[in-house]
From TrEMBL:
Residues 252-405 form the Acyl-CoA dehydrogenase/oxidase C-terminal domain. This is Acyl-CoA dehydrogenase. Keywords: FAD, Flavoprotein, Oxidoreductase. Residues 26-142 form the Acyl-CoA dehydrogenase/oxidase N-terminal domain. Residues 146-240 form the Acyl-CoA oxidase/dehydrogenase middle domain. It comes from Parafrankia irregularis. GO terms for cellular component: plasma membrane. Its cofactor is FAD. Belongs to the acyl-CoA dehydrogenase family. It comes from the Bacteria.
Amino acid sequence: MTTGDVTTGDATTGDATTGRAIGLDEFRAEIRAWLAANLERKAPGAGDGGEARSDEQVAAARPLQRKLFDAGYAGLSFPREYGGRGLTGEYERVFREEARDYATPQFGGAGHVTFTAIARSMLAHASADFLSRHIPPILAGERLWCQFYSEPEAGSDLAGIRTTARRDGDRWVLNGSKIWSTGAHQADYAMCLARTDWDVPKHQGLTWFAVPTGAPGVTVRPIRQINGASGFCEAFLDDVVVTDEDIIGEVNQGWSVAQTMLVYERGAGSSSGVRVEPRELAPDLVELARRAGRLDDPLARQAIATAHINDYAQYHLGRRIAARLRSSAQPQPAVAAYGKLAAGVLSPIRARIGVEIGGAEALLWPEGADEAAALPATTYLNGRMVAIAAGTNEVQRNGIGERVLGLPREPSFDARKPFRDVVRDARSWDGRIG
């Protein structure tokens, strides 16, 4: 399939073969035909495999991503000069709707952060040379990325990181540790936030670097989670060398990049995973009720309806947030927080509904069964994750209250002090204010 120029106005894409514009309906028909001819259908009730994927699953997803890339269906809304199609988000929505029943590339958590928060933040802030080197391999499935972001002493207070990047001639030397890095053990690169100036307030003096995860001095250790999987990792950087070519954005201006990343980390209007309009009545829960023999049980039916209403509300909330974000010239992480908060509140409810409907069917499955059989149990075990990861529900509420609703800000005692002094004073703080 060839790609052509994007026309303005009515959301159409040009067909380079005929020179005519292709509207969304014709685009949908093309996608439908291509998917049927090139991809396998998913098993009934199969999910996306969740955040943790095996090395074998990730390896198998790479050529499948390349297949999409070669056909022109990877990075539909990415600029054409970097391997995308330069289309609007409506084309991506159509593709997701048509591909929902097909086995598309699933990289787990590493794939999610690669194609959303990381790639989009790069497009907003990195140089053209950097993008030319890194975006096409991302879209082709050749490079997965992770975030070297949170640290043991800097989670919700993201500006409080202590990983250092020290200038050494024409190089930078990185030292420090990161934690909760999704998919880092399967990523090829990390987008790493480091402190490059300790003599300015904490929100200044931060810089983002591209770091190969296989570089000398980088150690990545998977963290075993409650469900037995390892979707998160801790990472250690010991005299890791990078150059100016690896900088994303500008030196000491990393907080502006972080603001963009937070928008996408919080869903960028997609409500953290509700990416396709839920037109069917919670198919996974309906199938679970069928297995448990509760399709006619009024309590189970009401629970399924509740889950469906929540899914539907999340999706359309996400679309409203996306429209708001598109209309703003500046990143608005506090607006994106509405979608993240909705997911953080409703995901545990949906996870519990699955267990309540399925009972033993939700918690037990035959040895050797496919991933769909274990999905209700793993979803329940991970049900609180969205309420914590990428900022807790409380952090989202604070951001909304202060930056959207205009409520009084919480007191801050370190925002204007040089970060070097903040760290020094913290060592002798006795808990008293003033």
